[in-house]
Amino acid sequence: MLHSNKNIVAILTIVLLAATTAYAGDSPSEVNQRIGIGDPVAGKDKSALCQGCHGEDGNSVAANFPKLSGQWFDYIQKQVREFQNGARFNETMTDVAMSVDNFQDLFDISAYFASQKTMGGTPIANEAEQQLYLEGQKLYLEGNERTGAFRCIKCHGEYGKGQPLNNNLFPVLGGQHKEYLIKQLTDFKMEERENDRSGMMLRITTRLTDHDIEALATYLSREPPPVPAPAPEPTPVSDVSDTTVSEVWQTLMEDKPVHIEDTNFEIGSAKLKSNVFKTLDEVVGFVSQKSDAKLALVGYTDTTGSAKTNRQLSLARAESVKKYIVKKGVSADRITTQGEGSANPVGDNNTKAGRAKNRRVDIRSVMKEEKKIKVNL
Asked: What are 290-331's pLDDT values in tens digits?
């Protein structure tokens, strides 16, 4: 028996009240769409056998059992039916699937796992994995024009979290076990997974190398970068000590670069670190007193990422510095910005410390007498 829309809303309300923490980060509209026509409350008890492998809330511990938490209802019930009809085969899963002989039970079980908080990934372990993550991110977002590999985001959504209000037959991938993702992509490529009737996944995976597959699986199985916290309020220029300002000004007037330690940008970020505010306040004080000075801001990146992405990111870094300076009272028409990507490195891009130095913004003070003043951020 199918539930009416009114009944679905009532069921959803009960589940939300009973397990509020399960929905952290998932909007009610997305959860409502995910659970389909099943009853997630009834599905909790009916899924007891499934929970033995896939976890009580659908977050399995063993990588050979996929996570089901927050997966689409339609996708879950479709896979169970395909284990039943032989389109997919796994000794354990096929036997379990055959034990579900009632459509409503299948709908309820699928709705229960779909109602849980969307599966989450694991932290990036080391620098080598960080590099794989970035390679997988680029491939997921942009594809590979040279090999003809398609971009994945169009079907599977940002970070692989699905496409809300779009096509719920494309599974949620973000947060899934890395080993499981590698196996499934490899099985599609080797035509050992046979429930791809349209041949879409075969066409996609045949354009992927084993390294590509590992990179994609790394990107999808690891936690997305955290959302940056709001920057603290900048220190007013008036609060900067006269002694500090005098030292910086003297250096600038002598046309020497001011070297600022430990203020480089994080990987892939244009967010200013708070410990740069004091130095920027001194630059603001300098240019405020020198009416004939203008600022030229040039942003840079390390060599991680594509040339196009790095140019955009380097410009965004320069714009972040400009925004801060303008907020402090300097007219925007006295400031120009430019992004040079990974050009002009000041550190060795083959080392972590060198790459950190290259994630910077250079500030030139252009005056009538053509003095050049550079501040490394």
From this structure: 777 778 888 888 888 888 888 888 898 888 888 988 998 888
For the chain, domains (ranges, CATH) are 5-114 (1.10.760.10), 127-221 (1.10.760.10), 237-376 (3.30.1330.60)
CA of 260: how far to CAs of 257, 277, 355, 357, 360, in Å? 9, 11, 16, 10, 11
| Angle, CA 332 vertex, CA 331 and CA 335 arms, to 5° | 105
Spatial strand order in the sheet of 335-339: 258-259, 375-376, 361-366, 294-299, 335-339
Contacts of 91 (CB under 8 A, 6+ apart): none
The closest of 25, 15, 181 to 112, measured between CA atoms, is 15
Burial class (CB in 10 A: 0-12, 13-18, 19+), 56: middle
This prediction's pTM: 0.57
